[in-house]
Write a structure and sequence with these properties.
The chain is an alpha/beta fold. Helix content is 40%, strand content 23%. The strands form 3 sheets. It has a 5-stranded antiparallel beta sheet with strand order 2-1-4-5-6. A 5-stranded parallel beta sheet has the order 7-11-12-3-13, sandwiched between helices. A hairpin with a 2-residue loop joins strand 5 and strand 6. It binds adenosine-5'-triphosphate and magnesium ion.
């Protein structure tokens, strides 16, 4: 699996030219607010498909008043070194993200890269995961699925596109029934795939949490569940299709699709009793860290994937429980960690051989 050996960021966010190498498994980036810690994690996250940890548009990634950004890094994949370039190209006033592997732009090289790299991400706003909107929680689960299924985001995009197309057809005056039937069949097929992927992802996390309970002192039991008005235990393709047909006029008026995985919520039940949204902020962070630990265990032990962990602002508000969870992760897995915080001292509890980077001074 992939390990990042070094990185160079040119005209990327606040950096003109930032260059550093990573020799340790535990890399701690610290420095004042605004020095560029999150930007470095974002640069690293762009090696994978997509728009990175902040889901930003490409224009905002380019340093102000510059034309394009350029990121170079060296990846070690199964003991071999690969030179990866990521950069923008502007065509017809639109930016495109280009990735090359050893100067090769072929689809095979990109597929190889995507199969070799996987991230688990913690962002400070995840402390509010259970207070945020359902769409944030769906994205959270979808990112976890993406960490072992790198074509999953394509499924989500295809599903969203079909939903939009169906509403467009419904809202035209002359209804093309054949076209509509086709699109609805597509929606059912993509939608069921998404439901199934999320259900199996949640099952894996719940299983792993149960297994981990034996060796870890968790503060409480956590069980994830999908909350969905439409999808109860199972739904057949035919029932799904019928439901879409039945709701055509409703959906036309409402301008959206009433049922489907885009309406699901993911809830966490604590000690078989209350929802995680009722916990304190710090305890909610614990739940998120427990889920990430469970997912990491699942990836490493069942999928043979060694993810790279990008944990932004993880240093702040760590009580003993959350410190222990983080330490458990660091000690348990031989994977690469990138942790950030404003102060080096926030990480004094880490006893493992860590490399510290003062980003303010670099
Ligand atoms: N396209 C851009 N061009 C120039 N500067 C940018 C661009 N995008 C973001 N910045 C600047 O990058 C700086 C660093 O941002 P970043 O979010 O990485 O800081 P940070 O070290 O993570 O800070 P914090 O500790 O507050 O999270 C900010 O001051 C921001 O204004
Ligand atoms: Mg930051």
């Amino acid at each position: 699996m992939a390990k990042i050996k070094n990185i160079e960021l040119k005209n990327f966010r606040n950096f003109n030219n930032f260059k550093t190498s990573f020799d340790h498994k535990l890399n701690i980036l610290f420095g004042d607010n605004g020095c560029g810690k999150t930007n470095i994690l974002e640069g690293i996250s762009l090696i994978a498909k997509g728009r990175g940890i902040r889901n930003s548009n490409l224009f905002n990634l380019i340093k102000k008043n510059e034309e394009n950004f350029f990121i170079n890094n060296n990846l070690e994949i199964q003991k071999n070194n690969f030179d990866i370039n990521i950069y923008t190209e502007k065509k017809d006033n639109k930016f495109k993200k280009i990735i090359s592997v050893n100067d090769d732009l072929s689809k095979e090289s990109l597929d190889f890269l995507n199969e070799s790299i996987s991230y688990l991400i913690f962002l400070p706003e995840m402390e509010r995961l259970f207070q945020a909107s359902p769409s944030y929680r769906r994205n959270f689960i979808d990112r976890l699925i993406f960490s072992s299924k790198n074509d999953y985001n394509r499924l989500i995009n295809k599903y969203k596109k079909s939903l939009t197309e169906r509403i467009k057809i419904l809202q035209t005056n002359k209804l093309d029934t054949d076209w509509l039937n086709n699109i609805e069949r597509e929606i059912c097929s993509f939608g069921l795939d998404i439901y199934n992927s999320r259900i199996s992802q949640i099952k894996h996390i719940n299983n792993e949490l149960n297994t981990l309970k034996k060796d870890h002192q968790f503060q409480f039991d956590v069980e994830l569940k999908i909350k969905d008005e439409f999808y109860k235990n199972k739904i057949s393709f035919e029932d799904y299709l019928k439901n879409l047909k039945d709701f055509r006029s409703y959906d036309k008026q409402y301008g959206g699709t009433k049922f489907g995985p885009h309406r699901s919520d993911i809830i966490s039940i604590i000690n078989n009793d209350i929802e995680a949204s009722l916990l304190s902020t710090g305890q909610q962070k614990t739940v998120v860290l427990m889920i990430l630990l469970a997912q990491c265990n699942y990836l490493v032990n069942f999928k043979n994937i060694n993810p790279i962990l990008l944990f932004d602002e993880i240093g702040s508000h760590l009580d003993n429980n959350n410190r222990q969870l983080l330490l458990d992760m660091i000690n348990k897995f031989d994977i690469q960690f990138f942790l950030t915080g404003t102060d080096k001292n926030l990480f004094s509890f880490v006893s493992t051989n860590a490399q510290f980077y003062n980003i303010t001074e670099l």
